[in-house]
Specification:
Elements (H helix, E strand, L loop, with lengths): L1 H7 L8 E6 L5 E7 L5 E4 L2 E4 L23 E4 L5 E5 L1 H4 L11 H8 L4 H16 L8 E4 L5
Antiparallel strand pairs: 1-2, 2-5, 3-4, 3-6, 6-7
């Protein structure tokens, strides 16, 4: 990002990203969030934002303290829980009145943490809610296998 920004003469060029690492058989996932939408943890009838260290987006990280960059946050992910990552194309989709897509209430009404069902549901529901989308729509859901 820094090289591209320098080539363009744009010292404010940046991109958000979230990195997730899951080791099969583990009961946790490690997350580094660089200014992206907040991941959600679903399970036991709850939807909880994942509390990660606040890090600057890629391309702006040099503005923050070096010793704090890239430290992952470990998040418990036992069987039956799902971590959901999504782009702002989901959370910022608007209906005809300009109302943002109500992500948490829609997921709560769905009543499942199955990754396949979550991704399929959001792909269809966001389009039905907002119609033609002007932004990207990407969703990733991860649930560990039961032992």
């Amino acid at each position: 990002m820094l090289r591209d920004a320098a080539d363009r003469g744009d010292d404010e060029l940046f991109v958000t990203a979230v990195l997730l690492q899951y080791r099969p058989g583990s009961d946790c996932v490690e997350i580094v969030n660089r200014g992206h939408t907040t991941p959600l943890l679903l399970g036991d009838g709850t939807i909880t934002p994942v509390s990660c260290a606040d890090e600057l987006p890629l391309g702006l990280g040099h503005l923050g303290p070096a010793e704090e960059r890239g430290k992952p946050t470990a998040v418990a992910l036992p069987p039956g829980r799902t971590v959901l990552l999504y782009t702002d194309g989901v959370s910022e989709a608007r209906d005809a009145t300009g109302t943002f897509y109500p992500l948490a209430p829609r997921l709560a009404a769905l009543g499942t943490t199955s990754p396949d069902r979550l991704v399929s549901f959001l792909a269809q529901d966001v389009h039905e809610y907002a119609g033609l989308l002007a932004d990207d729509l990407a969703v990733l859901a991860l649930t560990p296998d039961a032992p």
